[in-house]
Write a structure and sequence with these properties.
- This protein has 243 residues and is mainly beta.
- The radius of gyration is 17 Å and the shape is elongated.
- This is LPXTG cell wall anchor domain-containing protein.
- Keywords: Membrane, Signal, Transmembrane, Transmembrane helix.
Length: 243
């Protein structure tokens, strides 16, 4: 039997804009990111009684226009009244956003990635006490010529249930800054790609434009008319996600 995981499209994408924060350096760091947001997230499978799991992403990231590097803080939170038990957070990149590493997490093998994604990491959490949260430092790259999306599913430790999923939610801007040191991107905003070669002009509208979303993930989202994605696998073994 193939070990490739299947994906199911569910939920809807919630777009939002957020207040900007000052860019302190060319490359983003955790301190540069705005307040955390759970926009684009929804509950999927029912969590254990007293457990309420959600995730948070920064409202703003900043992409170095030279190296394309960016930093993102991914947070899982238990807002319930009881401990979570063993869970895992997945951090998955799509299109122009590629996840390069996540501190303390294991890379997901390509054959186990959901359709349309380009990268992913699995972050085990032995237990998340009631009212507590745990954050993970995510190193990523963002190609400003494309759309860029990120997805944060929270699963049971065995991967049989997905309690919560944020995204795939876009980071983007309607005002690219190809000739500046860095470009700020807002969560929940579709990216308007810069033209190849760093031109200040945006791609023209109409036929032939590099429209969003792009790639296989985009095709799946269009076909389903939605923008959520969650792992529906119920297999008892999960060796592909355990590094």
């Amino acid at each position: 039997m193939s070990s490739r995981r299947t994906t199911t499209i569910a939920g809807s994408l919630v777009t939002a804009s957020f207040s900007a924060v000052m860019i302190l350096s060319f490359t983003a760091s955790a301190d540069d990111q705005g307040p955390g947001s759970n926009k684009g997230g929804k509950a999927v499978d029912e969590a254990p009684a007293g457990v309420r799991l959600t995730t948070l992403l920064p409202s703003r990231i900043s992409v170095d226009n030279g190296s394309q590097k960016t930093a993102i803080t991914a947070t899982v939170k238990n807002g319930g009244t009881k401990d979570s038990g063993k869970i895992q957070l997945l951090v998955v990149g799509f299109d122009g956003l590629t996840v390069k590493s996540v501190q303390g997490c294991s890379q997901v093998a390509g054959k186990n990635l959901p359709a349309g994604s380009n990268s992913g990491f699995s972050c085990p959490v032995d237990n998340l006490a009631a009212g507590k949260s745990k954050s993970f430092a995510v190193d990523a790259t963002y190609d400003l010529r494309k759309a860029g999306r990120i997805c944060l599913p929270v699963q049971s430790g065995d991967g049989k249930k997905t309690y919560w999923q944020q995204g795939p939610v876009p980071f983007g801007t309607t005002n690219p800054s190809p000739n500046a040191p860095a470009t700020p991107l807002l969560l929940g905003t579709d990216n308007k790609p810069v033209a190849p070669g760093g031109s200040k002009e945006l791609p023209k509208t109409g036929v032939g434009r590099d429209v969003l979303p792009l790639g296989a993930a985009g095709a799946s989202l269009i076909a389903a008319g939605a923008a959520g994605l969650w792992w529906s696998s119920r297999r008892p073994t999960r060796q592909g996600l355990r590094g």
